[in-house]
């Protein structure tokens, strides 16, 4: 996102705005993926590996696999719930004439 802070979007054509939005969305997705991997690694490695070594034993492999599966399942569940909440709040505020769907 280098240089995006200096972009004057009012002077961009609709196609340029769309391209800029696509670029921003891709960069946000990349940051989210990096955050997910960092959190997953920190939590699962600290939980499953008590003595770092040159290889993983079968118990550590199984623990890591289960931990990663649970973490991803939870991440997906939270993401879906968040998206639904944002959509509900967006729809609630559009037709009601009030802020955020609240009276």
TrEMBL record:
InterPro entries: Tim10-like, Tim10-like_dom_sf. Pfam families: zf-Tim10_DDP. Keywords: Chaperone, Disulfide bond, Membrane, Metal-binding, Mitochondrion, Mitochondrion inner membrane, Protein transport, Translocation, Transport, Zinc. GO terms for biological process: protein insertion into mitochondrial inner membrane; protein transport. GO terms for cellular component: mitochondrial inner membrane; mitochondrial intermembrane space chaperone complex. The keyword Cytoplasm does not apply. Coiled coil: none annotated. It is found in: Mitochondrion inner membrane. It is a peripheral membrane protein. Residues 23-84 form the Tim10-like domain. One of its GO terms (molecular function) is metal ion binding. The keyword ATP-binding does not apply. The twin CX3C motif contains 4 conserved Cys residues that form 2 disulfide bonds in the mitochondrial intermembrane space. Mitochondrial intermembrane chaperone that participates in the import and insertion of some multi-pass transmembrane proteins into the mitochondrial inner membrane. Also required for the transfer of beta-barrel precursors from the TOM complex to the sorting and assembly machinery (SAM complex) of the outer membrane. Acts as a chaperone-like protein that protects the hydrophobic precursors from aggregation and guide them through the mitochondrial intermembrane space. Heterohexamer. Belongs to the small Tim family. This is Mitochondrial import inner membrane translocase subunit. It comes from Plectus sambesii.
């Amino acid at each position: 996102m280098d240089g995006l802070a200096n972009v004057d979007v009012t002077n961009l054509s609709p196609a340029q705005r769309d391209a800029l939005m696509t670029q921003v969305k891709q960069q946000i997705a990349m940051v989210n993926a990096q955050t997910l991997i960092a959190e997953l690694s920190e939590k699962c490695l600290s939980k499953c590996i008590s003595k770092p070594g040159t290889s993983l034993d079968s118990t550590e492999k199984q623990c890591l696999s289960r931990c990663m599966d649970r973490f991803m399942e939870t991440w997906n569940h939270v993401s879906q719930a968040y998206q639904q909440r944002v959509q509900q709040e967006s729809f609630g505020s559009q037709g009601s004439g009030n802020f955020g769907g609240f009276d």
